[in-house]
Amino acid sequence: MKAVWYEELGPARDVLHCGEIEATDPRPGEVRVKLFASGVNPADVKRRGLGTYGMEHPRIIPNSDGAGVVDAIGDGVTGLAEGQRVWLFNGQLQGRAFGTAAEYITLDAWLLAPLPDALDFNEGACLGIPCMTGYHNVFSDGPVLGKTVLVTGGAGAVGHYGVQWAKWGGATVIATVSSDAKAAHAKVGGADHTVNYRDANAAEQILDLTNGQGVDRVVEVDLAANLDLTSRVLATGGTISVYATTGDPKNLMLRMALRNAIVRFMVLHSVPRAAIEAARSDIIAWLAEGQGIHNVSATFPLNRCAAAHEFVESGDKLGTVIVRPAE
After folding, report:
1. Strand 17-20, strand 296-301: pairing
2. Is residue 324's pLDDT more than 90?
3. Which residues contact 171 (CB under 8 A, 6 or more apart)?
4. What is the 3-state secondary structure (H, E, C) of 130-151?
5. Mean pLDDT over residues 297-317, rounded?
6. Is the confidence at residue 95, as pLDDT, over 80?
7. First-to-last C-alpha distance (Å) of the chain
8. What is the distance between the alpha carbons of residues 158 and 305, in angstroms, rounded to a whole number?
9. Separation between Cα atoms, residue 146 and residue 172, nearest integer Å
10. How confident is the model at residue 72 (pLDDT cuts 50, 70, 90)?
11. Number of CB atoms found within 10 A of residue 79's CB
12. What is the pLDDT of residue 94?
């Protein structure tokens, strides 16, 4: 099969190679998928460039998300059929070397979910890390009906799903953004209010929107960069669920203690399986209802996977960057 891989950490154009390697047959409990779309997320480029978890294997095929059709089924697998359209998540993670930047991937059957006919493969490849992370951060501390949820970076890949999930759950949703265009994008996702976090009075705007009470929950894209804002607008006893940060936030303990707050950290591949399966179940039902806006930022052929990684690193994307292993 055609695949992209790296055998050392470094810049995408220096370490990513495209060529032929052998596809693996599914073992008991596994399924092989012929991939038509591979989602590139910031976590994927950080693993390759910064070595987030070190060089875990001698050879790594990057990218964790994807969509395609079931190609072969291992013993003991039920509920899936050859030729079925599926989306998948956690393709390349700790313990598994080969991700979705390839024509095929073999992985545990429970990491797959049916892809509705109404969605194309590119849209399906948006659903893994962004959609499931957005879901978990919104609902990890229970229902949000009647609550106020602040989604920082509400136009980003995870943030936009976070906005959609919070609105689906019955919350009043405030999204922070950095431009009028991103504000419009967040409102399409269901944000009731948007605030430009670059405004000097951004915290005052959010407090005014909550009648001075503050927000009940924060879905946080960058704890270090946003700590001054979120610590001012979080309601007493509120929750911050963090999925990314650019550094170690200073005075975190003091600021959160003053709010008697809960700060939750997460990365998708370490979320307990029961929570993952609950998220997947709700996503399947949500998609069946015709819900969901799935933003594809750009597409690249497999042999330009390095350019796709560089585009993610540029910070210019609005949505998920897709690599196409097959047409």
Report:
1. unpaired
2. yes
3. 138, 144, 145, 146, 147, 148, 149, 217
4. HHHHHHHHHHCCCCCCCCEEEE
5. 94
6. no
7. 14
8. 21
9. 7
10. very high
11. 9
12. 62
Q: 1: which DSSP letter? A: -
Tokens 């944000």, residue? 191
What kind of architecture, by CATH, is found in domain 2-126+294-324? Alpha-Beta Complex (3.90)
3-state secondary structure of 242: strand
Q: Give the integer Cα–Cα distance in Å for 137 and 273.
A: 15
Mean pLDDT across 116-124: 97
* SS3 track for 13-67: HHHCEEEECCCCCCCCCEEEEEEEEEEECHHHHHHHHCCCCCCCCCCEECCCEEE
Report the pLDDT value the prediction gives residue 326, as an integer from 0 to 100: 80
pTM above 0.85, yes or no: yes
Task: Provide Rg for the chain, Cα atoms.
Answer: 20
Multiple choice CATH, 130-269, 3.40.50.1970, 3.90.180.10, 3.40.710.10, 1.10.10.10: 3.90.180.10
